[in-house]
Amino acid sequence: MDEDESSVAVVKSGSEHSHSARLKKAKEIKAMRRAFATVKKRQRANIARVVNLENRKQRLLQTRKESIGNAGLLEQAVANLERNGIKVKRARTGEEAVSLVQGELAGEKLVVKSKSNLTKEVGLVEALADKGVEVMETDIGDRIIQVIGEKPSHPTGPASHLSKQEIADRLSTHFGQQIEPTAEAIVELVRDEIAAYISNASVGITGANAIAAEEGAVLLMHNEGNIIQVATRPGKHIIMAGIDKIYPNSEEALNMLKLQAFYATGALSTSFINIIAGTSQTADIEKKLIKGVHGPREMCLVLVDNHRSEIADSDYRELLYCIGCGQCLLVCPAYSVYGSEFSANSQLGGKGVVYAALNGEEADGGELDICLSCRHCQKNCPLAIDTSAMVNRLRLERHRRLREPHLAGAYDFVRAHIDWIGNALAVEATWLLAKLRGLGEDRG
Ligand code: SF4
């Protein structure tokens, strides 16, 4: 091959590469839209079965208003958790939280973990891996994402952007065998791998959906049944939770969980809700108290601030009302075109980008420009969180810093829409072309 031919080959392979990247993106967007449509359909089918939905939402909003940044409630929760024998450690920053968890591991080299957005926020898994600790995700979707090294696309459905064919193809290398592209075959294989790790682990790390101050209890909600197994490893149960997870009591926490289940999945309840107020114990033999009968001998809660106190005292306070259901992602027209590109580090969508900007996680600032200011997220959010207003406030602050505030809102609005139309057309054109070539048929 002479020089000219080789440069043609390089150009060709470069354009083939960018075409395959575009096709991969288009496939992911299509798969994500299908998964989101399924949740929305289930929500429509079940909405009449959620008794007093509007009252529940108002009640939750009131609870969040009274609980966020409530120092007295936080102290009550800590006192009652400790009274129940749960060790509580407070972390001001993400780094402190990671180092507290490391200290609790006391040399353990294998940890099983359940879904937790906070652990992503503080980079726990990567930090533990750097210290030689293997962290096994035990949620099926999270484990898939962990194996194939992708970004999650939804807080409760992290692999929503991948078709079963794509997952089977990409897991086949990891498992060293061709996997049948069916949900059943994939789940069976991933579950068996997870189960083997769980039975070998002495320590489990979970997040917390809520902490009930009055009872000193941690509430965990899940469908897969993995969380209770992680929480009952014989050595230690480590819980990592933000200070925004405090509720006055278990009744208010359960009201939140009911709404979270409906908005995240369209179901009226998850399969499991665990309320844990201390380790298992018995005094059956001569009244001697023995802890860890059928579960961990120790529980430790790492309570993380990481800018939450500052946000609670700022104009962005309502951001912390969020219960993490991901409903805003299901309805966001920008997310349905950009997918997880509309994110900053571990934080997804418009609300995530605002959160990341406030706690110093913003990647390059460009993520704020994606929001279309359409307010679909606010209209559909169970707490009516006005993400668009917060995005616009941050944009204005940025314009002020750059000394060009004139017509800033109009400029951002027009630019976001032009980019959005361009990207939407690119996804559709790539998908159509691939279908015509027989590459994009829906095998998922
Ligand atoms: S206002 Fe922004 S974040 Fe909210 S739905 Fe519209 S584009 Fe998405």
Structure description:
With 444 residues, this protein is α/β, with parallel strands linked by helices. It has two domains: 19-48 and 326-436, no CATH class; 51-57 and 69-138 and 202-310, NagB/RpiA/CoA transferase-like (Rossmann fold), CATH 3.40.50. Helix content is 52%, strand content 12%. It has 18 helices and 14 strands. It has a six-stranded parallel β-sheet with strand order 1-12-7-4-2-3, sandwiched between helices. Strands 8-5-6-9 form a four-stranded mixed β-sheet. Strand 5 and strand 6 form a beta hairpin. The model is unreliable at 1-12 (pLDDT under 50). The structure holds iron/sulfur cluster.
Q: Mean pLDDT score, rounded?
A: 90
Label the overall shape: globular
Number of strands: 14
Radius of gyration from the alpha-carbon trace, in angstroms: 23 Å
Helix content: 40-55%
User: What compounds sit in this structure?
Assistant: iron/sulfur cluster
**Would you tell me the structural class of the helices and strands?**
alpha/beta
Question: Reading side by side through the largest sheet, how are the strands ordered?
Answer: 1-12-7-4-2-3
Main sheet characteristics: 6 strands, parallel
Q: Which stretches of 5+ consecutive residues score pLDDT under 50?
A: 1-12
CATH topology of the largest domain: Rossmann fold
Q: What is the fourth-level CATH superfamily of the largest domain? A: NagB/RpiA/CoA transferase-like
Cα separation of the termini = 40 Å
Question: How big a fraction of the residues is strand?
Answer: 5-15%
